[in-house]
Amino acid sequence: MIRVVLLMVVVGATAFAPNPPLYAQPPVRNPTILAHYMPWYAAKPMSERWGWHWTMDRFDPEKTVDGQREIASHYYPIIGPYDSGDEDVIECHLLMMKAAGIDGVIVDWYGLTDLNDYAILHRNTTRVLQQCERLKMKFVICYEDQTIPKLVDAQRIDATERVSHAASEIQWLTQYWFQSPAYLKLDDRPILLSFGHAGLNDDEWTQCLVQVPTPIAYFSQDYRRSCAVGGFGWPSPRNGLTQVGRFASEAQKWTHAIPAAFPRFNDIYSEANVSEGYPILDDNQGRTLSGSLMHALKWNPVAIQIATWNDWGEGTQIEPSREFGFRDLEIIQRVLKSRQSGSKIPESAALALPLELLKLRRNQSAPKRTLDELADLMADREWDRAESSWPTSR
Asked: Which keywords does this chain's UniProt record carry (predicted)?
């Protein structure tokens, strides 16, 4: 029986516990830092209408209040509400991540069917992967297997096809996206996450992966399923920061784990009449993000997931906002610089370069070839050269 020794890492009025898992042994390695990415936003004029994640059938982005569109969020993107299919926006997102020291994304994927908006999400995810390949970022899929009971309810698949459907989805991944040089692997096996517990049960996941001939490094949420190599963490507003300690305690039994770092949780669900909403997990002036990230780094894991890049509805975003500016990315920069040896993380001023590049693309202020060359310099972490090569005054 493993005895858990509690070590409190105090951050303001909050604490993270217990010790990192027992498998965390020196020498220290730099884990792959990944941001959980939502590809589900639809916005005019790229899309015909504003998507549910900006409106939640309650808010109207065509209305403006104090110079801001009315959206389903307590916070407002610094680039404004956007369409997830906009390749210029994806480029801006990935380059801001790179400037912060984030290595890639874990994309929320709803599979290959065209139920609801799943086909649009698949298209947008394809574009994210293409930009990851171009900008030298890592890419991982988090499969929302809650799609399976929804497909059954919609009579798109039979209940007896639950496992075979999931296996066919993953087999498609092995033939295509898992082959990408950008796709992150663990011991030569592609990493795959599954979100939530409303889809396949433990036995069904085991049956599913047996049907997939390619060995996969599978991680389940919060706890390790019997067929998984480990679990990945996720913020729990009902449990607060004690969830960090619960996950750490459980993860001591596993070979691998992907701990989570997160800034806050402050959803809009109650105001949108979607649900009663969840308790607020306080931002604590940035200490929640810095504390959870420092605690995750002490584990020496293969990867850390930042939850999230852009879930504006739940308020967990680290994407720059009108309210916080670049603060969350600056926190990540500082924490990673203090931990990583030989870091190529630039000064905080570089965080604004991708945003300025997006403005140039939107305004068509310079030739596309020139702007592509700037993006290439940033992808190569040549931040000073990119700034000195800027085609217009900033």
From this structure: Golgi apparatus, Hydrolase, Membrane, Signal, Signal-anchor, Transmembrane, Transmembrane helix
Strand partners, 108: 142
2-29 burial code (b ≥16 CB/10 A, e <16): eeeeeeebebeebbbbbbbbebbeeeee
147-158 tens-digit pLDDT: 999 999 999 999
Contacts by 69-72, CB closer than 8 A, 24 or more apart: 71/312, 72/268, 72/272, 72/312, 72/313
Among residues 45, 86, 8, 95, which one has the least CA distance to residue 319? 95
- 120 bridge partner residues: none
Q: CA torsion 109→112→113→119, rounded to 10°?
A: 70
* Rounded Cα gap, residues 294 and 338, in angstroms: 10
Q: Specify whether the CB–CB gap between 281 and 288 falls below 8 A.
A: yes
The CA distance from 171 to 139, in Å, is: 17
CB 94 within 8 A of CB 127: no
- Report which DSSP code applies to 261: E
3's tokens: 């005895």
* Residue among 299, 201, 203, 189 at smallest CA distance from 245: 299
Q: Angle 368-379/87-100 helices, nearest 10 degrees?
A: 30
Q: List the chain domain ranges.
A: 9-73+101-336
Q: Map tokens 């790229």 to a residue.
A: 46
| Residue 221 host element (H or E) | strand 217-221
Q: What is the pLDDT of residues 100-109, one digit of tens each?
A: 999 999 999 9
Instruction: Look at residues 4, 15, 12, 21 and name the one whose alpha carbon lies nearest to residue 298.
Output: 21
State pTM to two decimals. Answer: 0.93
Does domain 9-73+101-336 correspond to CATH entry 3.20.20.80?
yes
Q: Which amino acid is at 310?
A: N
DSSP 382: -
* CB atoms near residue 188 (< 10 Å): 7
